[in-house]
C-alpha cells in the first residue's frame, strides 16, 4: 500500500505515441479508474506501472521510490490481466501461492496466506481445481486472489470485468470495491465502461489518444467536462454545431438562437444532456418548438428524437410517469435552462 | 473534490538510470548462435563454390565462378538434376491428385475409420527413410517377379515411391487450410443457387488454394531432396541429384560439388520465396 | 438413411484412392520385408525360404552389430539433447519476436531442411577437413601446430546430425510456444518471478507438449540418420541407417538387412514410448 506517482510518463512505438506525457498522483488507498476509448493507452499505462513496458520518457514512483526502470519482478505490484492469465497447469491454490513462493516465504506461511486470499474471494472450496474447471467469474476471482496474496503496494486491474456477463459484472465490481476498501489498497482500474467506472471510483481519469483529458469526481466529469471529447464520452449528449455569437448566446447551424453557458466567440458545439430537456416546463431560458421523429420506450424513461430545425435534431429523455407519451409526428415544445447548454469551441 | 494533477515530489532520489537488459541480450545471443549453427554449413559450402583453387584449403587463393561451368559438364550432376526434377514434378502431381480429395473427405466428412486413415496417410513421413527404401525395394522385386514387368531402377518405380512421400505433406497442408475455412460459406453459395461442383470450383477451391500451393512446394521439395529411400530404388548409372552429390562427396569434396550444392540451395530458396507470396511459410511449417 | 449412405459412398470415393495407394505402397512392403527378415541367407545361394529368428539372434549376439545399435542410440540421445537445449531459446525468440523480419527468420530455419542432408554435410566437410576452416584458423593463429583430426570422428557426426535436426526441433517448439498466452509469462514476472524462474515454472511446463513432440521427432531422425554418418563418419563409422543399406545393396543379405531395419524401427519406437511415459509422469499436471 503506497502512494503512486506517474510523472510525465510516455511510451512511443516508432512514431506513434501510445501514452503521451501522463502525470498522475494516486493517494495511498485511493481507488482510481482510468476511463477511455479502446486504444487510448490505458493498458500501456498500467503495464508501465507494473514494469512490463519500459517507458520512453518520464518516471514512475511507488511509495516515494523511483521504480521507472526496475524490472517487474522487483516491484510489488499486483496485476489482474484482462485475460486473467492464470497458469493453466497449476491448481487454484498453486496459482495463488506462486507469488508467495517467489518471495521465498516459509511453506507454512505461504499456505496460510494463500488460503486467506482464497477466503477473501470466497473460493476456498475450489483450491484443488485447475483454472479450466472454473467459470469465468471464478477465474476472475482467482486472478484477483493471486494479486492480493502478495499484498501489493499497488493493485492494477486491466478491464477485469470485461469478460463477464452483465449481471456478474455488477456483483463482482462491488465485491472488488469492498475488498479494496477493507484492505486499503491503492488501486488503478482500467475500463472503457462508464457505468463501471462511475460505481467504484474515488476519482476518475479520462484518457484519449495517450493523454489525460480530465481528472475528477463523477460529478466533475458529468457536469463540467473539460472538453468536447469528455462531454461526448461521459454520459450521453446531443452535439449541435454552430457559433457562439455573444456572451451566453449560441446560434445553431439550423439558425436557432439559444441561450447557453458562456464560451469563447466563434465556431463551437453546443452540448445538451438528454435528461436536462423538458416538455413545456415553466421559467426556462430556451423554448423551442419541434416535431417528434422517433420514440423508444425503455421502461423507466422514454427517449425521443426531436427535430428542432432542418439541421438540428436532439435526444430527449423523459421520466416515464405513465402519462400519455408523445408519439411520432407530434408537435411539441422543448424547454431547458441555459446552464444545461455547455459550449466547446471547435 | 478538486481536480488534482500531480506534481513531482522533490524528495525523491535522482533519476534512476535505464538498466541494460542483459537477460534479453543473452537470450538473443543464444538464439543467434542457434540460427548460425543451422545456417553455417550452407554458408561454408557457398563460400567453397567460389574458390579459385580446386583443393578446399583455407584461406582460398582467390575467387572464381569457373566451377559453376564445371557443374554443367558433369554428366551425373546434370543427369541427376533432370531425373530429380522429372520425378519431383510427376510425383507431386500424382500425390496431389490423391491427397486433395482425401483431405476434403477427412476435413469435412464424418465416416468410420477416419482417424485410422488420417494416421495411415501420415505413415510415409513416420516410417524412417532407410526402412521405407528397403521395404519398397523388396516390394518392387516381388512385383517384378509376379508380373514380369520391370519396375526396380526405372523412372516409373521411382516416381511411384516418391508419390508416396508427397502424400503426407499434401494431406496435412490441405487439411489444415480446410480447417480454417468456414463451411457455412459453402452453404451460403449453395443457398444462392450454386450446384455442388460450381460451389467447389468457385468457393472452396480458391479458399484452399494457398494450402494446395504449399502442398505442391513441400511435396516437390521433399521428393527433390529425398536421399535415403531413393538410394534403394535408383538403377545403375541413373541417379537423382542428392545421390549424385552424396556419391561425389564420398569420394572427395571440391568446389564443383559445392557449386552444384549452391545451385540447389538457390533453386529451393527461390521456390520458397515464390511460395511465400501465396502462403506465409511461417504459418504452415 | 439413403442420404447417409450416399455421404459414405462419396467419402469413400474421395479417400479411397489415397488410402489404397498408401496401404499397398507401405503396409504391404513392410509386411514383405518382415517376412524376408525371417528367411535364411546362405552365402552363394542368396536368400532361402525359411521361418527363423536367426537373423535377429545374430544381431544381438554379434558384438559388432550390437555395438552399432548402442552407438546409434547414444548419438541419437546426445544430439536430441543438444537440439533441445540450443533449440529452445531460438524457438522462444522466434515465437515472441514482433520483428517485421519474423517470416524471413523462419524461412532461414526452414531452408536448410529443404536443401538436403548431403549438402549440409558438405558444409561441415569444408569446416572439418585437415585444411578446413577450423584447422586452418587454429593453425593460422598458432594455437595448433598439427591439424586436429575432426573428420571421421563421432564428434563430427554429432555436430552434423545436430545441425540437421535442429530446425525440426525449433519449428516444433516455436509453434507450441506461440500458442502460450504471453500474458501468462507477464503474470509470473508481476508476481515476482525472475526470467529463469518463469522459464522453469511456467514456460517449460506449458511448452511440454512441444518439447515432447520435438524430442521424439529429432530422436527418430537421429536414429535413422544416413548421409551425415556416411559423409562425416567415414566408411568405417557405422550407424544403423548405413548398416541397413550395406546389408541390402552391398552384401545382398536381404534377410539380415530386413531384420536390422525392423530392429531399428522397434528400438526407435520403444525408446520414444519410454521417453513419452517418463515425461508424462513428471509433468502430469501439465497435461491439458
Ligand atoms: N507493442 C506495441 N507495439 C506497437 N504499438 C502498440 C503496442 N502496444 C500497444 N500499442 C499501441 O498503443 C496504443 C495504446 O494501446 P493500449 O494501451 O493497449 O490501449 P487501451 O488499453 O487503452 O485499449 C494502441 O494504438 C496500440 O495499437
Ligand atoms: Mg487495453
Task: Summarize the structure in words.
The complex is a heterotrimer of chains A (346), B (285) and C (288). Chain A is of the alpha+beta class. Chain A folds into two domains: 4-229, Rossmann fold (3-Layer(aba) Sandwich); 236-345, Beta Barrel (OB fold (Dihydrolipoamide Acetyltransferase, E2P)), CATH 2.40.50.140. Chain A is 25% helix and 36% strand. In chain A, a hairpin with a 4-residue loop joins strand 12 (249-252) and strand 13 (257-259). The relative contact order of chain A is 0.12. Chain B is an all-alpha fold and 285 residues long. Chain B has two domains: 2-48; 66-283, MetI-like (MetI-like fold, Orthogonal Bundle). Chain B is 74% helix and 0% strand. Chain B is built from twelve helices and no strands. In chain B, 44% of the residues are buried. With 288 residues, chain C is mainly alpha-helical. Helix content of chain C is 77%, strand content 2%. Chain C contains 13 helices and two strands; from the N terminus they run αββαααααααααααα. The longest helix of chain C has 36 residues, at 2-37. Chains in contact: A-B, A-C, B-C. The interface between B and C is large, with 85 and 91 residues. Bound molecules: adenosine-5'-diphosphate and magnesium ion. The site of adenosine-5'-diphosphate has 10 residues of chain A, from helix 1.
Give the CA-CA distance, first to last residue of chain C. 38 Å
Task: Write the H/E string of chain C, N to C.
Answer: HEEHHHHHHHHHHHH
If classified by CATH, what would the architecture of the largest domain in chain B be? Answer: Orthogonal Bundle
Poorly predicted regions of chain B: 1-15
User: Helical segment tally of chain C?
Assistant: 13
Q: Give the integer mean of the pLDDT values of chain C.
A: 89
Largest sheet of chain C: 2 strands, antiparallel
Give the helix tally of chain B: 12
Number of strands of chain C: 2
Radius of gyration of chain C: 24 Å
Placed side by side, the strands forming the largest sheet of chain C appear as 1-2
Number of strands of chain B: 0
Q: What bound compounds does this protein have? A: adenosine-5'-diphosphate, magnesium ion
CATH class of the largest domain in chain B: Mainly Alpha
Name of the CATH class of chain C: Mainly Alpha
CATH topology of the largest domain in chain B: MetI-like fold
CATH overall fold name of chain C: MetI-like fold
Helix content of chain B: over 70%
Q: Which shape of chain B, going by the Cα principal axes?
A: globular
Amino acid at each position: 500500500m503506497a502512494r503512486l506517482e506517474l510523472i510525465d510518463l510516455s511510451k512511443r512505438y516508432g512514431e506513434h505515441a501510445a501514452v503521451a506525457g501522463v502525470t498522475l498522483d494516486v493517494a495511498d488507498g485511493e481507488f482510481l479508474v482510468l476511463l477511455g476509448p479502446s486504444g487510448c493507452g490505458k493498458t500501456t499505462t498500467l503495464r508501465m506501472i507494473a514494469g512490463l513496458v519500459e517507458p520512453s520518457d518520464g518516471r514512475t514512483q511507488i511509495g516515494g521510490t523511483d521504480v521507472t526502470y526496475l524490472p517487474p519482478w522487483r516491484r510489488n505490484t499486483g496485476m489482474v490481466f484482462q485475460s486473467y492469465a492464470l497458469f493453466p497447469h497449476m491448481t487454484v491454490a498453486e496459482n495463488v501461492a506462486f507469488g508467495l513462493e517467489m518471495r521465498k516465504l516459509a511453506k507454512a506461511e505461504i499456505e496460510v496466506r494463500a488460503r486467506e486470499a482464497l477466503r477473501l474471494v470466497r473460493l476456498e472450496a475450489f483450491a484443488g481445481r485447475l483454472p479450466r474447471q472454473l467459470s469465468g467469474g471464478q477465474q476472475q476471482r482467482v486472478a484477483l486472489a493471486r494479486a492480493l496474496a502478495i499484498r501489493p503496494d499497488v493493485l492494477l486491474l486491466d478491464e477485469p470485468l470485461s469478460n463477464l456477463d452483465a449481471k456478474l459484472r455488477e456483483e463482482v465490481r462491488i465485491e472488488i470495491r469492498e475488498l479494496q476498501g477493507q484492505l486499503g489498497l491503492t488501486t488503478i482500474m482500467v475500463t472503457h465502461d462508464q457505468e463501471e467506472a462511475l460505481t467504484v471510483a474515488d476519482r476518475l481519469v479520462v484518457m484519449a489518444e495517450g493523454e489525460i483529458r480530465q481528472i475528477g469526481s463523477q460529478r466533475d466529469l458529468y457536469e463540467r467536462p473539460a472538453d468536447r471529447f469528455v462531454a461526448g464520452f461521459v454520459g450521453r449528449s446531443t452535439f449541435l454545431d454552430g457559433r457562439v455569437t455573444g456572451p451566453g448566446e449560441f446560434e445553431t447551424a439550423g439558425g436557432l438562437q439559444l441561450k447557453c453557458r458562456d464560451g469563447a466567440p466563434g465556431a463551437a458545439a453546443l452540448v445538451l444532456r438528454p435528461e436536462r430537456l423538458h416538455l413545456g416546463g415553466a421559467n426556462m431560458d430556451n423554448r423551442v418548438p419541434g416535431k417528434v421523429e422517433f420514440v423508444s420506450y425503455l421502461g423507466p424513461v422514454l427517449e425521443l428524437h426531436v427535430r428542432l430545425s432542418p439541421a438540428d435534431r436532439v435526444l430527449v429523455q423523459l421520466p416515464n410517469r405513465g402519462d400519455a407519451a408523445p408519439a411520432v409526428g407530434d408537435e411539441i415544445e422543448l424547454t431547458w435552462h441555459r446552464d444545461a447548454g455547455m459550449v466547446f469551441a471547435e | 473534490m478538486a481536480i488534482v494533477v500531480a506534481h513531482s515530489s522533490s524528495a525523491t532520489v535522482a533519476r534512476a538510470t535505464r538498466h541494460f537488459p542483459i537477460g534479453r541480450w543473452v537470450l538473443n545471443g543464444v538464439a543467434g548462435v542457434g540460427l548460425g549453427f543451422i545456417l553455417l554449413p550452407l554458408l561454408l559450402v557457398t563460400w567453397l563454390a567460389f574458390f579459385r583453387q580446386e583443393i578446399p584449403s583455407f584461406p582460398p587463393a582467390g575467387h572464381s565462378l569457373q566451377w559453376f561451368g564445371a557443374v554443367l559438364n558433369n554428366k551425373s550432376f546434370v543427369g541427376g538434376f533432370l531425373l530429380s526434377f522429372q520425378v519431383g514434378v510427376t510425383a507431386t502431381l500424382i500425390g496431389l491428385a490423391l491427397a486433395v480429395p482425401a483431405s476434403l473427405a477427412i476435413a469435412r466428412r464424418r465416416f468410420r475409420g477416419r482417424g485410422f486413415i488420417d494416421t495411415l496417410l501420415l505413415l510415409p513421413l513416420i516410417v524412417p527413410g532407410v526402412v521405407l527404401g528397403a521395404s519398397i525395394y523388396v516390394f518392387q522385386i516381388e512385383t517384378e517377379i509376379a508380373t514380369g514387368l520391370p519396375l526396380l531402377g526405372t523412372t516409373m518405380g521411382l516416381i511411384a515411391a516418391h508419390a508416396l512421400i508427397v502424400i503426407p505433406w499434401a494431406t496435412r497442408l490441405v487439411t489444415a487450410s480446410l480447417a480454417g475455412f468456414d463451411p457455412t460459406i459453402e452453404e451460403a453459395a449453395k443457398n444462392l443457387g450454386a450446384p455442388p461442383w460450381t460451389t467447389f470450383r468457385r468457393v472452396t477451391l480458391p479458399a484452399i488454394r494457398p494450402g494446395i500451393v504449399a502442398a505442391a512446394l513441400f511435396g516437390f521439395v521433399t521428393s527433390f531432396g529425398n536421399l535415403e529411400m531413393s538410394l534403394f530404388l535408383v538403377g545403375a548409372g541413373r541417379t537423382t541429384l542428392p545421390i549424385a552429390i552424396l556419391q561425389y562427396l564420398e569420394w572427395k569434396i571440391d568446389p564443383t560439388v559445392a557449386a552444384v550444392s549452391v545451385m540447389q540451395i538457390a533453386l529451393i530458396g527461390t521456390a520458397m520465396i515464390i511460395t511465400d507470396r501465396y502462403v506465409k511459410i511461417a504459418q504452415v511449417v | 438413411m439413403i442420404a447417409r449412405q450416399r455421404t459414405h459412398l462419396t467419402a469413400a470415393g474421395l479417400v479411397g484412392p489415397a488410402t489404397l495407394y498408401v496401404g499397398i505402397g507401405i503396409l504391404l512392403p513392410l509386411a514383405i520385408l518382415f517376412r524376408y527378415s525371417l528367411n535364411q541367407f546362405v552365402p552363394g545361394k542368396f536368400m532361402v525360404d525359411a521361418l527363423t529368428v536367426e537373423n535377429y539372434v545374430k544381431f544381438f549376439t554379434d558384438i559388432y552389430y550390437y555395438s552399432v545399435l548402442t552407438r546409434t542410440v547414444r548419438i541419437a540421445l546426445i544430439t536430441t539433447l543438444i537440439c533441445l537445449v540450443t533449440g529452445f531459446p531460438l524457438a522462444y525468440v522466434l515465437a515472441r519476436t514482433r520483428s517485421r523480419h519474423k517470416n524471413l527468420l523462419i524461412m532461414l530455419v526452414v531452408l536448410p531442411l529443404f536443401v538436403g542432408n548431403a549438402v549440409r554435410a558438405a558444409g561441415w566437410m569444408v569446416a572439418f577437413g585437415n585444411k578446413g576452416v577450423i584447422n586452418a584458423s587454429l593453425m593460422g593463429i598458432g594455437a595448433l601446430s598439427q591439424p586436429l583430426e575432426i573428420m571421421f570422428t563421432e564428434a563430427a557426426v554429432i555436430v552434423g546430425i545436430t545441425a540437421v535436426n535442429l530446425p525440426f526441433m525449433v519449428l516444433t517448439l516455436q509453434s507450441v510456444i506461440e500458442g502460450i498466452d504471453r500474458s501468462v509469462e507477464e503474470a509470473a514476472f508481476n508476481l515476482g518471478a525472475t526470467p529463469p524462474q518463469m522459464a522453469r515454472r511456467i514456460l517449460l511446463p506449458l511448452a511440454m507438449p512441444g518439447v515432447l513432440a520435438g524430442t521424439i521427432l529429432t530422436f527418430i531422425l537421429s536414429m535413422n540418420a544416413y548421409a551425415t554418418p556416411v559423409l562425416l563418419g567415414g566408411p568405417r563409422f557405422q550407424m544403423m541407417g548405413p548398416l541397413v543399406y550395406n546389408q541390402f545393396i552391398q552384401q545382398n543379405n536381404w534377410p539380415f538387412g530386413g531384420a536390422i531395419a525392423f530392429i531399428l524401427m522397434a528400438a526407435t519406437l520403444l525408446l520414444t514410448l519410454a521417453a513419452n511415459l517418463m515425461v508424462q509422469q513428471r509433468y502430469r499436471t501439465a497435461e491439458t
